[in-house]
Write a structure and sequence with these properties.
Elements (H helix, E strand, L loop, with lengths): L7 H9 L1 H7 L6 H10 L4 H5 L7 E5 L9 H16 L6 H12 L9 H13 L2 H6 L7 H9 L5 H11 L2 H20 L9 H8 L3 E6 L4 H10 L8 E3 L6 H9 L8 E5 L2 H9 L3 E4 L5 H17 L6 H11 L9
Parallel strand pairs: 1-2, 1-4, 2-3, 4-5
Helix pairs in contact: 1-2, 5-6, 5-11, 6-7, 10-11, 12-16, 14-15
């Protein structure tokens, strides 16, 4: 039998998967095996909606570029080469890379869903004089734009269903590209450590707040990266792009359970701030290129301000202004 007194990790498992827990509590399965089962369980919308608060406050945490230094690696090594090769853009590879880096890393579009960023990248690319002069045709993604406008979840499972349903060649092509990107990420973005002060912050927060991951990265990659760094035990659940936008994920996990003053979103992209704002929640920025300093400040000062109910107002506004100054809206060319 399991011990009656639950460890911190046991409590997190119980809050995430009450049905699984109730089935395992009467067994002799070793705790390590249960932990593995939890790691392999991919969070669903039902898990978000049924999240059981253990504390009065909740902290929602982005992953890529926020907890792990994976943004540049994934974009430059996995995403951008795959864009070039998949759509045969080798003659304008320099401009593809430059444009994709601006959209995905160095602009206010940073951190958004891969399909949204792909459209924005190609829209900017199509209008560059160098690309026009090259005569290379840049895809317009008419079907993808319809999908984006529909309000449906933008992720590989939904895209696969669309392909199976309609047989649309553009959708099939997009799915092939997206799956190839996932393969590159699994192969090349391994064993990337978390930023300094992340683990210390998670240790500090776990005794006072519920913690969840809210991301637009596929959940398979998220679960692997948090597990590789032995951080998955700190969070109640890990939400990826399959569950909807960050705004939707926060809403599902918090509505009717936490007051806005007790919800904090940590992120490194404008989309993270928007998700917080849409839910009336608070936002703390992990500033791009200054991540360790941001986490140290969070650990030593900002989180205490949040717990004390003194974060909203002048303190939060200063954090937001510093963050927004780092990311331009328009490209430099």
């Amino acid at each position: 039998m399991f011990a009656v007194e639950f460890s911190t990790k046991e409590n997190r498992l119980h809050s995430l998967m009450p049905s699984l827990w109730s089935g395992l509590i009467e067994t002799n399965i070793p705790w390590r095996s249960v932990q593995t089962m939890a790691a392999e369980h991919h969070c669903t919308k039902k898990d978000l909606l049924n999240l059981r608060p253990r504390h009065d406050s909740i902290v929602c945490i982005d992953s890529d570029g926020c907890v792990f230094d994976t943004m540049e690696l994934k974009q430059k090594v996995c995403f951008h080469p795959q864009i070039i090769s998949h759509w045969h853009l080798e003659p304008i590879a320099r401009y593809v890379r430059e444009t994709a880096e601006f959209v995905n890393l160095y602009s206010k579009g940073r951190g958004r869903n891969r399909f949204l960023c792909l459209v924005d990248t190609f829209d900017l690319l199509r209008n560059r004089p160098e690309v026009v002069a090259s005569g290379v045709q840049v895809p317009e993604f008419r079907r993808l734009r319809q999908w984006m406008a529909s309000g449906k979840v933008l992720g590989n499972p939904a895209l696969r269903k669309e392909v199976e349903k309609s047989g649309d060649p553009e959708s099939a092509d997009l799915l092939e590209w997206s799956l190839a990107v996932n393969e590159r990420v699994a192969a090349d973005a391994k064993d990337v450590p978390c930023f300094k002060w992340v683990r210390e912050s998670l240790e500090k927060m776990q005794s006072h707040s519920d913690l969840i991951v809210v991301s637009q990265t596929p959940v398979e990659a998220l679960a692997r990266e948090w597990r590789e760094n032995d951080l998955d035990g700190y969070v109640s659940l890990i939400g990826g792009q399959e569950l909807g936008t960050k705004t939707e994920q926060i809403s599902m996990a918090t509505e009717g359970r936490y007051s806005p003053e007790q919800i904090l979103m940590l992120g490194d992209a404008p989309g993270d701030r928007k998700a917080a704002k849409d839910n009336g929640a608070l936002f703390y920025a992990i500033n791009p290129a200054h991540e360790e300093k941001s986490w140290e400040c969070f650990y030593s000062d900002a989180y205490d301000m949040f717990l004390a109910g003194e974060y909203r107002g002048e303190y939060e506004q200063r954090i937001i202004e510093e963050f927004e100054a780092l990311l331009p809206e328009n490209p430099p060319w």
